[in-house]
Amino acid sequence: MRFGNSGAGDPSVGTSGDTEPAECPYCGSTETEREHPKGPGLCRSMHYCTACEEPFEKFG
Ligand SMILES: [Zn+2]
């Protein structure tokens, strides 16, 4: 009557696909970095293309 293993499994492990790379509207590259929005009430995200070094915004 002894439980050596006390449930080491986590069923809620999984990637939620929240880190999709944004595609650059200028060169179509996905070598982009996401920048954190600095203003309040901003419903769009800022991205920066490392390929052509252009910042762009993406909605949604
Ligand atoms: Zn680009």
TrEMBL record:
Tell me the domain of life: Archaea
Query: What GO terms are given for molecular function?
Result: phenylacetyl-CoA 1,2-epoxidase activity
Class of this enzyme: oxidoreductase
The segments labelled Disordered in the record are: 1-38
Q: Does the keyword Oxidoreductase apply?
A: yes
Q: Which UniProt keywords apply?
A: Oxidoreductase
Keyword Transit peptide among UniProt keywords: no
- Which residue ranges traverse the bilayer? none
Enzyme Commission (EC) number: 1.14.13.149
* PaaD zinc beta ribbon domain sequence ranges: 10-59
Q: What is the recorded name of this protein?
A: 1,2-phenylacetyl-CoA epoxidase subunit PaaE
Q: State the encoding gene.
A: paaE
